[in-house]
Amino acid sequence: MPVARRAELVDRATATGMLVIEDDYDGEFRYDVSALPALRSVDGGRDCVAYLGTASKILSPTLRLSWLIPPEPLRANISEAVSVCGEGANAMSALALSAFIDDGS
Question: 5: helix, coil or strand?
Fold first, then answer.
């Protein structure tokens, strides 16, 4: 989606109270041109975009690691839901992925 349409979507979502879920699983695989900005990084995006991703396609499905960065008002409810369902990440795998991301690999 072109940058102008991304901004338009975020503006509309903000104006209507809509939540946009962005799964940017292949954003880093644009070799011929610069990567487009994530919707969450567009002005106002932090208020209406839930950004999610997984290591399954970019590293390995056996890691079973994913992430979600929701708008602030949703964080407490999502944290509670994750606690109740009992799902979680393997701590060692999560720390390894974090180090991988932090050092720019």
Answer: helix
DSSP class of residue 89 equals -
Note the pLDDT tens digit of each residue in 15-61: 999 999 998 766 556 667 777 778 888 899 999 999 998 888 778 88
pLDDT tens digits, residue range 75-89? 999 999 988 988 778
What's the sign of the alpha-carbon dihedral 67, 96, 32, 26? negative
Question: 3-state class of 79 per DSSP?
Answer: helix
Range of the domain at 28: 3-102
Q: How many CB atoms are closer than 10 A to CB 93?
A: 16
Burial of 45 per CB tally in 10 Å (0-12, 13-18, 19+)? buried
Residue 25 sits in a domain of what CATH number? 3.40.640.10
Count of domains in the chain? 1
Sheet with strand 66-69: strands edge to edge? 20-23, 49-54, 66-69
First to last CA, the chain: 27
